[in-house]
Amino acid sequence: MVVRRSMLAQYIHCNYSTSGKCDYFQVTLRKSDFHPKELARVYTGLGLYGRDWDGDRVDHSGWHHEPSLVPTEPYHDPGKKRLPRGEILPAGQLTLDDIRGVTAALAKHPNVAPFLSFRLIQHLVTSNPSKDYVRRVAEVFEDNGDGIRGDLGATVRAILLDPAARGTGYLTDPKWGKLREPIQRLSQLVRVFDAGREFDASGPPIENFEFYWLTDRSPNPTTDFRQGLFRAPSVFSFFQPGHIPAGSVLAEKALYGPEFQILDPLAAVTSVNRLWSSVEPPNPLPAPRDGIWVVDPMLDRDQPGLHPFPVGGRWFQCHLDEIGVDALADPEKFLDRLNLLLAHGQMRASTRTQLRRLLAGEFGDLGDKAGLVAIQVAIASPDVAILR
Amino acid sequence: MEFTKTTQNLSRRVLLQTGTVSAVSTMLGLRALGQVAGAATSGGEDDYKALVFVFLAGGNDSFNLLVPGGAETYEEYRTSRGSLALPMEGEGALLPIQPDGDNETYALHPSARELADLFRDGELSFVANVGTLIEPSNSEQYRAGTVELPSSLYSHNDQAIQWQTSQPGLGGSARTGWAGRMADLLHSSYNGEDAVSMGISVSGTNLLQSGSNGVAYSIGPHGSVGLDGDGSAAPSWKQVRAKALRSVLEQDYDNLFEQAFVDRTRFSLDQHEKFSQGFSKVELGTSFGPVGHRWGGSLEAVAKTIAAHRDLGMRRQTFFVQLGDWDHHNNLLRDHGAHIGNLSRGIGQFWKAIKEIGMAEQVVLSTGSDFGRGLSSNGRGSDHGWGGNQFVVGGPVRGRRIFGTYPRLRLGEGQDIGDRGRLLPSTSTDEYFAELALWFGVPPGDLPLVLPNVRNFFDPAGSPPLGIMKG
Known about the structure:
heterodimer, A: 388 residues, mainly alpha, 4 domains, two-stranded antiparallel ribbon, 16 helices, globular, B: 471 residues, alpha/beta, nine-stranded mixed β-sheet, three-stranded antiparallel β-sheet, 14 helices, 12 strands, disordered N terminus
């Protein structure tokens, strides 16, 4: 029988080293206790939805990043599997039963709570949580108060309601905060400026509109941001939790800045250009080809050519009038709105001063583009890019 | 912030090596000063060298790239590889090559036509069965457990990091790569403080070119990128926008994340100003057309940057190019062949471009990968291994050779350490990179600053063990 590994098995194989260490970066297990090949056997028989057993696409009806992997039972290894800490999966189980069994067994490992808590805090609040903060969250993962382990809702609540996240220490702590992921910076604009509303408002609203904007169904997020949803370059995703940005002020203090791994010098500029074009109305509106709008994915794909824009025939844009204030008629109120909508009320006085000068025409005449440019400069500022 | 310190879980060995690195950092200032006089006299306008490092991410199955071609050795290969073995005759036959001064014959993957041509023309050589090692290790020592081994063997991201740091004992705590440490040592004396970075990456962030003094500047297939509108040809409102953003980025930020963010953005804008002027003047006749856009475009951007070196004021440059998707656990024969073809065509075109601009004697391209792969078939592909074969291209390279020791491929013997035919490397990355670094201009006495473990393998004052480079 052909025994194959799925991507998931590879991920586990890759991420569980055999070095015997135990820390927040790897849920590592003692070599004597851990059998990567046994785990790999659990995942045999899984294939991608819409593809045949050779990995070739058989269903061309659309993209298949979303559906779950599909088990093919004749290709599943039916034997008994040895799991860490002496647990056994009995022979003859269906693929999904084996997977449920191994997931339950791995989730019991004592390193899972701090491992997961650390990562979730990094994604939601701050790149360098204190040991105590991680411990408090891990304790909730261990027991949600009702004796249940692994309640993710309770875990996230603990992260967001922790004194470290709710207090005011972050206002003065220079080590607090995180760089927001490019996709989060873009999705903020999509939400604030109601980009689900159509350009000419002639059709019904589109379901899951943000999804279309944020995947590579829209032009080139991978090229401009080094991040296209469901397009991670490897099983290790876009950036590593232990990344320390070389040559930066963060590295001088040995601080993690995971998201900086995809903010290399080139991406630091291309991401700004992309965010800027995302809030500009299309001018002129591109012409449809064969009835659908097309985008040029040349920069993003190894295969040059034209791919259809998936919300074919309809053009969407950010609506800057969501700010609700005229930039030139009432600049201070306009800046108040920018501060609230984009910087969560934390815009620095020095940044506001520069934006005020911009609206006053001190950098040059902008005419009716003053409001647009003020928004663009704000979204490229650290006040908006860094979450504190 | 105590958290980072307490979770490092440093072993004694790691502490010792970290100590070495700190000592290196403090010595660098002195070294760089001492280097100025030497560099100034070591060459005139034409004293230019470029080292291009191509990283094949995912773990290239390189025992299907360079295959033994003798009657007996090929039979061993065929038996060990089973369904993954490539044929010596008929359709899709291997391309025979004959190294100089070697009694053995070899063969290259049928899709590696350009690499075979470069080999036969004496412009390409292989380094056989090279991999991450901390100290010289044979299979008996490996089995007896008497040698210190790299951490997290067979793991993609760990091994990719170790290839780029050449410090397999440090694991994830390594902060600098060997090309970054070369830049710490040589950049200011060869290129000057105001030049663009010595390291240019066409594949974004990498550890290879990260040093204590700075990081690589990254460019795309079309060169560097500046702010939309940051140029005199742009509409005036866009120029105003760029000016206003710069005024925001020039503020001081007490939050370290905010300061790191503005520092990186300003670094990029400043580097673009310097870089774009020289780069934009270059026109190449060589076409990179049929190769995948990102890969071909990346190599084209490297060739153009090399062509622009005088305008850029550069005398030493390193380049990082990553080509991904080499993790062929499945469909190896089909997919690996396509990747080898793409790799080979790109390298062939790149080298044609380098010759077109007359830089063949001043450029060396070398490859690396996470690891080689186990010889045994898993049914449809191969799994993570250790030692693998790499190649070097360039005028300064002694071509048409196979350096190091090509292992016998019979399972259960020699370098095979079991577990589906994983091979213990017979040459370390330190030995491989040392020759590149010495050619690049690292003085032998400073080699341990670039490759901290190199003395475990040879005395830097003596002659290098592989002899990859001419004279």
